[in-house]
Amino acid sequence: MRTFYDKDxxxxxxxxxxxxxxxxxxxPEKVRATKRQWLKTEKGRKYGYAYQKExxxxxxxxxxxxxxxxxxxxxLNLRLACxxxxxxxxxxxxCCGEKMLQFLSIDHIEGxxxxxREEIGNMYRWLISNSFPEGYQVLCHNCNLAKGFYGQCxxxxx
Length: 158
Prior knowledge:
Order of helices and strands: HHHHEHHEHH
Helix content: 55-70%
Structural class: mainly alpha
Number of helices: 8
Number of strands: 2
Shape: elongated
Strand content: 5-15%
């Protein structure tokens, strides 16, 4: 049995498709914004999760790279927020004035940092979610280690 198509209808659909493609190429920002809005709907979220799972199965190496990179960026932003808050925007060691970001850390003023970190897990996330509680300061790793071993930093002795 043959199926007959209305040639005008086929031509109309093709013209509409071409017009839509042309508009999408011309307005990529609007297309992205619309897609973002759609992905916020329940149907969009379900589609997004399913698509993401499938993509991760097909591209495990790339997915791991992306997750690692975004995780590092996320943790760095948390760390910067905490260091910035506790150093009052100066980003330096309270004791010696060290300014290299790689050397700075958060110190429990009263001690007990190891036990506290074991209880809470991610220190920076905990500090932010608890609205930056008192009792913490920014020290460089040298001053923090000396404080832990000797009770006070050598800079305080002189």
